[in-house]
Write a sequence for this structure.
């Protein structure tokens, strides 16, 4: 059940009505959230529900047991068991095929026999997301940062809550569980201006921008990379960079908006990432929930930035290698993660040099850049160049993320050296869609909060009419059919 | 352009570091539930009528079977109402003139 479909619209209409009807009974409401989320998930494949149910039961009781256990060794053994269980699920369903394929490849190189069974394992949708939700929950209990959920329904609803279930954001139990255990009252105001704006902006980014970029530029270039010349290949890669931003941030926006209408608040997941001045800043603005998860549960436990320089570099590369692998079972994802890790190491190494040069040229830091007076022009030029450079660097890494194989990625990069033939993709409409996609970043975060408030001040019927008209315009401009969100595959 | 971007980023902070638990002021914003439900009823009604013909067309693309029959039975009166009230025209016009889409066979029936 995809968000921009009639079936989801009907599902949400029923769920929203029941949500507010049952909100006065917290226990029943939690069960309702759980069951409606399971219906949403089971819509794809009922078999997937077994896995979600198993994860719910094991992590809920594991969390309770962990909380009640006092001995340090017993607690350590318990958290190890829970981590192994969760990573085992992810490892088997997501990485088994990849592991066996590579084991056979290695065995054939070494000319030794390999007898691992070849299984056709189906990857359940959203597995990576709900596994990370479960891991953060049990680890937070182990660290003493939170208490377990009062009821299994509450934890199950947190784990399976349908707006974030299949493609995030990866919300923390500490943020969401209290909201589920203490539901909003019917008297509490609902931020309809923000919810409607997020849903409509999300639909616009997905249906109009992401789908158009995919159909007109990114897919043709990545499907037949070797046939295009350098300008077209470059445009295809840029198109993919904007497409993945519009696609994934759209899902997050819609998820946040839907949750708001049901009385729950999620943190934001994207904040104008392509306007960043550095890679470090980019990762504070791109898929914020994943990067903060990796920071809190991987980078910091490895030692973070409070250790010897070589250890910091190791931690960065390791975190991003695993972050890359989280996205998919393929070497191209590992390489994408490794590239970002190496970028961050280089950025750290060059930081003192860049600071000295910037100071010499009179360039101000990001925090004071907007203030007027001396050094304004050098700052703007330097920041503009930094943004353009960052976009190129990120786009280079996207090639490995999007290309199905290493061979496809290299043939695409080889095409970047071909300057013969006419560029067919550089049309006015393609460039306009690309520019609009880039500009949608201005809508991220709280930047248009005044517009939300203005919308919320209108009479309710007018809000409904405006939303219906905007939806119709969005659907009219989008290409035929509904392409799934890119992050569904992860 | 670069100056405008800097100005926008400075004057419109994203507050992405803000925690949900600290978000009291924002949490109190909004309208009463009754108004939200009214807005949603109007939205669903208007969106259905404005897109009735397209909903029927999308439904007719489902694979043959009992499920498709049920959906088509539900979508047919919506399509008829949308066509009779001529509320399907704005979308058809936008698709033809702005989005460059060809009208489908169903829309002409």
């Amino acid at each position: 059940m995809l968000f921009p479909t009639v079936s989801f619209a009907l599902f949400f209409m029923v769920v929203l009505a029941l949500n507010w009807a049952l909100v006065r009974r917290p226990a029943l409401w939690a069960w309702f959230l759980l069951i409606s989320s399971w219906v949403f998930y089971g819509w794809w494949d009922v078999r997937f529900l077994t896995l979600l149910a198993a994860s719910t039961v094991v992590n809920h009781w594991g969390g309770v047991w962990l909380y009640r256990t006092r001995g340090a060794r017993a607690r350590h053994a318990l958290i190890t068991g829970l981590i192994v269980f969760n990573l085992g699920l992810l490892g088997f369903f997501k990485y088994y095929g990849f592991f066996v394929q590579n084991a056979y490849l290695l065995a054939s190189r070494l000319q030794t026999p390999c007898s691992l069974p070849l299984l056709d394992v189906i990857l359940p949708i959203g597995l990576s997301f709900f596994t990370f939700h479960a891991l953060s929950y049990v680890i937070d209990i182990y660290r003493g940062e939170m208490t377990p959920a009062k009821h299994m329904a509450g934890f199950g609803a947190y784990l399976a809550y349908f707006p974030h279930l299949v493609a995030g954001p990866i919300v923390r139990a500490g943020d969401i569980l209290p909201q589920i255990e203490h539901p909003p009252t019917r008297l509490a105001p609902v931020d309809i201006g923000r919810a409607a704006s997020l849903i409509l902006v999300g639909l616009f980014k997905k249906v109009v921008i992401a789908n158009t970029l995919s159909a007109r530029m990114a897919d043709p270039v990545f499907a037949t990379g070797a046939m295009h010349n350098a300008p077209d290949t470059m445009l295809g890669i840029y198109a993919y960079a904007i497409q993945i931003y519009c696609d994934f941030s759209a899902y997050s926006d819609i998820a946040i908006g839907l949750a708001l209408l049901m009385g729950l608040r999620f943190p934001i997941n994207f904040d104008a990432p392509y306007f960043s001045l550095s890679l470090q800043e980019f990762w504070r603005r791109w898929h914020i929930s994943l990067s903060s998860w990796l920071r809190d549960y991987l980078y910091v436990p490895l030692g973070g930035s409070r250790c010897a320089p070589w250890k910091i570099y190791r931690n960065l590369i390791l975190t991003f290698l695993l972050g890359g692998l989280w996205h998919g079972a393929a070497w191209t994802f590992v390489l994408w993660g490794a590239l970002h890790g190496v970028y961050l190491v280089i950025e750290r190494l060059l930081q003192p040099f860049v600071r000295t040069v910037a100071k010499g040229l009179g360039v101000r830091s990001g925090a004071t850049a907007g203030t007027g007076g001396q050094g304004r022009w050098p700052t703007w030029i330097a920041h503009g160049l930094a943004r353009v450079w960052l976009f190129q660097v990120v786009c280079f890494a996207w090639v490995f993320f999007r290309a199905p194989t290493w061979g496809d990625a290299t043939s695409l990069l080889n095409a970047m050296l071909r300057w013969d033939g006419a560029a067919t993709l550089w049309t006015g409409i393609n460039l306009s869609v690309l520019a609009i996609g880039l500009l949608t970043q201005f809508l991220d975060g709280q930047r248009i909060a005044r517009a939300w408030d203005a919308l919320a001040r209108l009479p309710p019927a007018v809000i409904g009419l405006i939303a219906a008209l905007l939806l119709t315009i969005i659907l009219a401009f989008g290409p035929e059919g509904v392409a799934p969100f890119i992050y569904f595959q992860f | 352009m670069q100056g405008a971007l800097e100005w926008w980023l400075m004057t419109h902070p994203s507050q992405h570091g803000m925690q949900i638990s600290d978000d009291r002021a924002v949490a109190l914003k909004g309208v009463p539930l009754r108004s939200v439900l009214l807005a949603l009823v109007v939205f669903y009604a208007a969106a259905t009528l404005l897109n009735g013909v397209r909903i029927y067309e999308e439904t007719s693309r489902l694979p043959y079977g009992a499920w498709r029959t049920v959906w088509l039975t539900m979508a047919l009166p919506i399509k008829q109402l949308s066509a009779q009230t001529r509320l399907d025209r704005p979308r058809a016009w936008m698709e033809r003139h702005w989005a460059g889409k060809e009208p489908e066979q169903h829309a002409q029936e």
About this structure: Chain B touches chain A through 53 residues (CB under 8 Å). Residues 15-27 of chain B have pLDDT under 50 and may be disordered.
